[in-house]
Amino acid sequence: MAARKCGRSACYLTKTAHLSGCGNMNYIILDMEWNQALSRAKTVRSPIVLNGEIIQIGAIKTDEDFELVDRFKINVRPKYYKKMNPYVEEITGISSLDLTCGETFPQAFRRFYEWCGNDFRFITWGFDDIGILSDNLKLHGLDDTFGRNYINLQLIYNRQTKAPQLQCSLSAAAEKLGIPIDVQVHDAANDAYLTYEVCKKLDMTLGIAEYSELASKISEPIFRDTVPKVKDCKKMLLDKRVTDIKCPACKQKLPFGEWLFTNGKNCRTITRCTCNEVYLVKLKAAFISEGNFTVVRSVYASTESEANIFSEKLRKRAEARERHKKNV
Ligand SMILES: [Zn+2]
């Protein structure tokens, strides 16, 4: 389809899409395929541990009412895992020869980035895609926080269909919702479209409204990383490398108040960013050797009510301390 450029920078839309798609927030339903090392021993460990290298990006752009705006698909030529892992080849039907035809990740990502536009939110099936995207961005020295403020559709699906298990495949969900699958699954563009059809069967207005509550109930963080070589776990909050955490939504440095230690090595707090997103942040120090700890930092979506409960806990603790002082 012919694309034309609208007034806003980096906004290429098909002609019919142009009228409805500009100036508003879009949802981008994202699906990716990635290749893996041929064996565990061959897993790339530097510059990062690379569990999956992206070979295909598929996406559907919708408006705020989930009306289709545009589609996107691009094949990516991997830099590290150039030979198809047989398992991945079997499920995706992508061969090693196919891989040579794609664009490099930085080129492909640039095109995808421009296609996404300025105001959007990702929707993915499961947590894996955003993690893999973040790893691949890091691998190429690009901004790895891109798209972190995403929606995992699985959580909305689980809530609204009362599905018992957390992990359920996209095709199983589609089948349960009575969506016919007449295309090859594990093709990024087809899977993105299938995910879009799942959205259409769900109450997305409700799902998105209660999303942060859903996300805070499960143990998957929005962001997790590790800080190596922390000298003293009891003083980890004095180490700027530990407390310098960027908001997954707006990328500003998160403000921190008081932390609650559950033991000498673990602590947590709830913070509200200036962009109004609320997060639960957990720090866990692991002993490596004398004077050497690794701190795992996890950021979870949280809610206003949890923030209030947390403040209440801090207040009670302060009161208990006061009472203790008086009694001594
Ligand atoms: Zn923020």
List keywords for this structure.
single chain; 328 residues; alpha+beta; Nucleotidyltransferase, domain 5; TATA-Binding Protein; six-stranded mixed beta sheet; five-stranded antiparallel beta sheet; 12 helices; 34% helix; globular; disordered N terminus; binds zinc ion
Any overview of this molecule?
The chain has twelve helices and 13 strands. The protein folds into two domains: 3-217, 2-Layer Sandwich (Nucleotidyltransferase, domain 5), CATH 3.30.420; 223-327, TATA-Binding Protein (2-Layer Sandwich), CATH 3.30.310. With 328 residues, it is α+β, with helices and mostly antiparallel strands. The protein is globular, with a radius of gyration of 22 Å. The protein has helices at residues 15-21, 86-92, 96-99, 105-116, 128-139, 153-161, 170-176, 188-201, 204-209, 211-217, 240-243, 304-327; strands at residues 3-5, 12-14, 26-35, 53-62, 68-77, 103-104, 120-124, 151-152, 223-230, 260-261, 266-272, 278-289, 292-301. The longest helix is centred in the C-terminal third of the chain and has 24 residues, at 304-327. The chain has a six-stranded mixed sheet with strand order 6-5-4-3-7-8, with helices on both faces.
